[in-house]
Structures are given as structure tokens and as C-alpha cells.
Amino acid sequence: MAGKTAPKPDPRKAIVEALMRLAAIQPFEEIRIVDIAREAGVSLADFRDAFPSKGAVLAGFSRLIDRAVLEGQSDDLAAEGGKDRLFDVLMRRLDAMTPYKAGLQGVTEWARRDPAAALALNGVLVNSMRFMLEAADLDHEGLAGALKLQGLVIGWTRVLDVWFEDDEPDLSRTMAALDRMLTRGGGVAARLDDLHRLSAPLRTFAAALCDRRARSARRESAREQTQAEEPAPRRMRGGWPRDDEGPVIKPA
Predict the structure, then answer these.
(1) How far is CA 134 from the centre of its chain?
(2) Which of 4, 118, 156, 224 has its CA 20 to 30 A from that of 176?
(3) Residue 92 neighbours by CB distance under 10 Å
(4) Structure confidence by residue, pLDDT tens digits, 173-208
């Protein structure tokens, strides 16, 4: 009986890991796509099928880490507070990122040299943190949720700065930094939630006002359309119809 054929390696994962290896040893902006393809053992055509750019590879790396964290999700901390749940989720994220630590440090240094890159990476991190909050069963909807997400991204990057320099096996410095960040962030998030609740009547009134104005505009538009479709009134001159608009009735 013939043996089973070995599964074909995933070129996307090979490309992601190749980029992270290269980012660990050379400036990110000097890495060319052809270098990544060569390191990954794929053709340029395969690279193009998988990713449109180096930046897209970084987004693919972020999704790879997201998946590793989300696949490790359990209900062990379901009864714990929100801070403890998020602490556990983010520590699992650090565990998943550990094999790529040197490459991530290279990417972070590149972002500090390139504001456009920093802005793009911020968007990638916001998407990842959205799922980290979901994994911790924490709300992130609406304006308050968007502010929480951005605040978490900023705090997370500061924690990473500590992590890059933390060589202790137990990551004691990193865990302390993460705990401080979540404590401060929790206070800010609570104030945002309070503000969101207090502003609910105002937001309801504003929505109703906008809806009323929209209905009024629709009625006015319908009225104008009706008037445009009605025949124009016969024009008068000196109290009598014009010759070209019908017979002229002369006074007796």
C-alpha cells in the first residue's frame, strides 16, 4: 500500500516566517521581496499569489499570532474580572510571539524611523486588539470602544518595549508592565463607559433630531418633484391669455 503523500507546506506561513527571520538580522526597509521569496523557498509568482507587499506580510504575521491566541482560548478564567481575562489573553499573545522576538524588534525600530509605516502598523494592531478584547469578553463597540482599542494599542507597544529587553525566564518585568498598563487602562475604560452612559440621552435626542430633519428634507424633495411634474399655469398678459396660449376673448 502506497504511503500517504506529505501535506504541501503553506507558502503564506513560509513567507511570514522568512520575513521575520530577515527582519531579525537586517533593517526592514532594506529587505526586498525577492529576498523574502528566496528565504521562504518560494517563487516570486507564489509570493504574489500570497501577498501583494511586505506590509501585507506583516498583517499576515499578525493574523498568524491572532489565530494562535484564539485557538488557545478556554473558559478557565470566565469567572475572573475583565482585567485578569485580558492579562491572560495578552500573555498568551506574548508566548505566541516569542519565537519571532528579534524580528519583531526589528519591525518596531523600522516603524519608529518611518511615520507612514507606524500609521499602517497601528491599523494592523487595532484589528488584532479587537479580537484580543473579544477573547477576553470585553466590549469595544461605539466611540468609547474605539478609544479603548486605540488606548490598548498604545499601551501594548509600551509593554513590548519592556518585553524586548526582558531576558528573565519568568518575564517578571514584562508582566509587571502589563499589569500596570491594564490597571491604568481599566480606570480610563471605566470613565469612558460612564461617559457613554451619561451621554445616552443626548445621543438619543441628536439621533431623533437628525431623523426629523431627514424626514423633512424628504418631504420637501417630494413636494418639489410633484410641483415639477404639474403643468405650468397659463401665463397672463394684461389680465388676458397670450395669443399663443389660446383664443383671446374680447370684451363686448
Answers:
(1) 13
(2) 118
(3) 20
(4) 999 999 999 999 765 554 444 433 444 454 354 445
Instruction: Note whether residue 193 is domain-resident.
Output: yes
| CATH of residue 109 | 1.10.357.10
Does residue 227 lie within any of the structural domains?
A: no
Burial 153-180 (b: 16+ CB within 10 A, else e): bebbeebbebbeebeeeebeebbebbee
Host domain of residue 165: 11-200
CA 89 – CA 138 distance, rounded (Å)? 12
Lookup: cell for 160: 513590548
**How far is residue 111's CA from residue 156's CA, in Å, rounded to a whole number?**
15
* Residue at 225 is within a domain: no
Q: What is the pTM (predicted TM-score) of this model?
A: 0.71
Percent of the chain with pLDDT over 90: 59
